């Protein structure tokens, strides 16, 4: 088992990465002094349950003497809604959850964000534990951002609420569809680009093993990728400064994701396209050399991720979606741009015209 | 203008108390460096708007160069609902509120709790300013507890989110119905009981002037009462310890309030009854003398507040409601009890039998 520490100043927790961890969760909760007289709440989605990952978790909780209620949501982004959260709150309250209860989020980023939002606001905040089952969740489970969506925009209603622990059982990834694996792979590439050229090269050389879920390689990938996320979050828990570099590829990526219509592109697919665009924007701004941007496009392509903006997405609509993105404060266009692989910076006042050019170049012809 | 400071360690803000302050809000926001390029959101309720308090606020914001959107909710507890919050989120998002926007809560505890919840969770937290218009709001506007209700229980969904400032215009109280004045008066009595015998005596001697809204007396009352609240909150922002003393009178009070059916008793009316019960429980536990309990009953009575539990409320149902109150962790009965006026403490394992006796003694016969 690999352990990585996160320390934001306000809160401290560990990320545990290894095999067979779901079957040890009860024991781990005992070590975290989670009490056995309160009831707890497992949140998961239908697909994760069907894949069989609930079974070892339930067994281990029971063996350790924990009583847990179960709230299962439909798989997919549409579950990140206040209406469903209200049903979960009612359920938790009827089940007698109190302020010492813990929420256990078993699933990918959707379950983690949704369950984390419940924990952040139930009785003004109770602890929660992330039990990620997707590769992408190495990103979403670390850092304490939790949220649900508005029908018109993603992640508008949320909080910063750090987990009590992240327990990452690599075995769970064995049932993850390849497309989801690729989606998570994109965020790992991002972590290399923003802070660690060596990690980027390491990933580049191991695309196949990662997508084939080689346990040794996967453990190292998750540990290294989580470490970068943890470092950035520890330096800036509430996204007042450096944390914004985590949004590399996300400004155009989010616009592509939302305009395509949720469910069509996976988050990581949209981010893959967004990273290529951000790199090309960096070149146009004279910040980095074209070969750095090409290296990104090539690793994205090798992973089987999309490299182009779907043809039916309109440049004007993408631009106006970017402008109302929540990171655009006061109307100016701010981007995370790249100096070189491993080094990015926040650039304000990027000319709209250049953004449009990049988008047009990258649209499928 | 009187200024009181709150400093929780995580956040620092001022409570400003005086006349004509709504008309100075724009200026005060400028002093707080609230930016003028973002749009802001005023939340108020229909009755507060009808009473005319929006007018000076709007004028002063405009004079200071602020653009504010307006979201008006129906008056009353039923507005503290997630469904209405979702509509407010959609409205705020469509209006273009961003992370530098500020929510202005103009109203009593309902508006404060609701608008504070919006601010706590919109884009993972934006600042908000409390503009209290009820006497009770001296309690609800200080301390950062914000929440909405489940249909089955109050304040279950919420956060700790400290305001940027509390701007308390005493003039607003001139339109407040007497019954609401009394309701707020109960919380002021509570602040005397838990920390300040001298304040209790001062209040006792000024019941009439307070209920008649004498500006001088009111300013001093609000300042002293807010100071106590601020001290307790500063010592324990998240209610891990001493903050619980603020719940004096609230354990039985909440049960009475909810079983009576929301809307029938005002919050302060239920708390007035709850305080008398808590005092009598303290006597039965041998913690204080009967005359201290009698002094409380007498000041409550002099204010025209109820002193007895309505006859139709059943002792068994009250007891089971108390047991599922969120302060009951792990099933034991915990109460804030009184040693003397000005001195309370948290007592665990209060025998259910004594609680039942007190309830039965206090029911209308
Ligand atoms: N909070 C953050 O910091 C953060 C960061 C990035 C992304 N996110 C959020 O994360 C979400 C995307 O996360 P995701 O890609 O993990 O999505 P997801 O949770 O929807 O999982 C993808 C799909 O895989 C299924 N699945 C999950 N684990 C499985 C397994 N082990 N075996 C078989 N199927 C499995 C799920 O049921 C789902 O259908 C988005 O909502 C995004 O906004 C949040
Ligand atoms: N957050 C906290 O720490 C805290 C503490 C105590 C109470 N509360 C909450 O506060 C709420 C009760 O607060 P409240 O008693 O202020 O209730 P309220 O906000 O409902 O106000 C009472 C009534 O008076 C009206 N009103 C308000 N100001 C007026 C004015 N100046 N002129 C004329 N009418 C006016 C309102 O429209 C309402 O009908 C409850 O929801 C309770 O849970 C919160
Ligand atoms: Zn992402
Ligand atoms: Zn109260």
From TrEMBL, chains A, B:
Task: Give the matching InterPro entries.
Answer: Dehydroquinate_synthase, DHQ_synth_AroB, DHQ_synth_fam, DHQS/DOIS_N, DHQS_C
Q: Which Pfam families match?
A: DHQ_synthase (PF01761), DHQS_C (PF24621)
Residue ranges occupied by any 3-dehydroquinate synthase C-terminal domain in the UniProt entry: 184-328
Q: Which keywords belong to this entry?
A: Amino-acid biosynthesis, Aromatic amino acid biosynthesis, Cobalt, Cytoplasm, Lyase, Metal-binding, NAD, Nucleotide-binding, Zinc
Q: Name one GO molecular function term.
A: 3-dehydroquinate synthase activity
Residues at which Zn(2+) binds: 187, 250, 267
Catalytic activity line of the entry: 7-phospho-2-dehydro-3-deoxy-D-arabino-heptonate = 3-dehydroquinate + phosphate
Q: What is this protein called?
A: 3-dehydroquinate synthase
Provide the organism lineage as a comma list. Bacteria, Bacillati, Bacillota, Bacilli, Bacillales
Q: Which gene encodes it?
A: aroB
């Amino acid at each position: 088992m690999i352990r990585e520490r996160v320390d934001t100043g306000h809160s401290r927790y560990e990320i545990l990465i290894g095999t067979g961890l779901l079957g040890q969760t009860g024991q781990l909760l005992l070590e975290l002094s989670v009490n056995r007289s309160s009831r707890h709440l497992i949140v998961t989605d239908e697909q994760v349950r069907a894949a069989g990952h609930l079974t070892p978790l339930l067994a281990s909780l029971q063996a350790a003497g924990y009583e847990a209620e179960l709230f299962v949501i439909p798989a997919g982004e549409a579950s990140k809604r206040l209406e469903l959260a209200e049903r979960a709150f009612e359920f938790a309250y009827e089940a007698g959850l109190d302020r010492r209860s813990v929420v256990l989020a078993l699933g990918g980023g959707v379950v983690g964000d949704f369950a984390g939002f419940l924990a952040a606001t139930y009785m003004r905040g109770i602890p929660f534990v992330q039990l990620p089952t997707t590769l992408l969740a190495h990103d979403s489970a670390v850092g304490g951002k939790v949220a649900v969506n508005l029908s018109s925009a993603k992640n508008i209603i949320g909080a910063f609420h750090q987990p009590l622990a992240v327990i990452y059982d690599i075995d769970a990834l064995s049932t993850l569809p390849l497309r989801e694996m690729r989606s998570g792979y994109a965020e790992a590439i991002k972590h290399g680009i923003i802070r660690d050229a060596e990690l980027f090269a390491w990933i580049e050389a191991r695309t196949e093993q990662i997508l084939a879920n080689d346990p040794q390689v996967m453990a190292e990938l998750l540990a290294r990728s989580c470490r970068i996320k943890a470092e950035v979050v520890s330096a800036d828990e509430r996204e007042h400064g450096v944390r914004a570099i985590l949004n590399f590829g996300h400004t155009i990526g989010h616009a592509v994701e939302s305009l395509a219509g949720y469910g069509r592109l996976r988050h990581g697919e949209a981010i893959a396209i967004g990273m290529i665009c951000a790199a090309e924007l960096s070149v146009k701004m004279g910040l980095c050399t074209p070969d750095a941007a090409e290296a990104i496009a090539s690793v994205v392509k090798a992973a089987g991720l999309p490299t182009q903006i779907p043809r039916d997405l309109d440049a004007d609509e993408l631009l106006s979606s970017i402008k109302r993105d929540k990171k655009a404060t006061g109307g100016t266009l701010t981007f995370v741009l790249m100096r070189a692989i491993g080094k990015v910076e926040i650039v304000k006042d990027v000319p709209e015209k250049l953004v449009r050019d990049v988008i047009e170049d990258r649209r499928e012809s």
